[in-house]
């Protein structure tokens, strides 16, 4: 009876350990890391786009408030 009990406990612990290790291996697999990297890159790209849009909007507000010529770059003379 005692041997059967420890056999069942050992089997349950073994199954649990293998299941946990498989999940851990999937998280660390190259496909998973690639997907995570793509998500981060996409978030950074989106953040950059939002910052540029906000900068352009604020620049327009400042130009209007200061009465600076709001002509486009094509209409301005280049004084470099």
Structural account:
With 80 residues, the chain is mainly alpha-helical. It is rod-shaped. The mean pLDDT is 84. It comes from Kribbella deserti.
Q: What's the structural blueprint in terms of helices and strands?
A:
Layout: H1 2-28, H2 30-66
Globally, the shape reads: rod-shaped
Task: Determine the number of helices (DSSP H or I, runs of at least 4 residues).
Answer: 2
Order of helices and strands: HH
Assess the beta-strand content as a share of residues. Answer: under 5%
Largest sheet: none
- The assembly state of the depicted protein chains is single chain
Organism: Kribbella deserti
Protein name: DUF6167 family protein
InterPro entries: DUF6167
Pfam families: DUF6167 (PF19664)
Search tags:
single chain; about 80 residues; mainly alpha; 2 helices
Can you summarize this structure?
It comes from Kribbella deserti. 80% of the residues lie in helices and 0% in strands. It contains two helices and no strands.
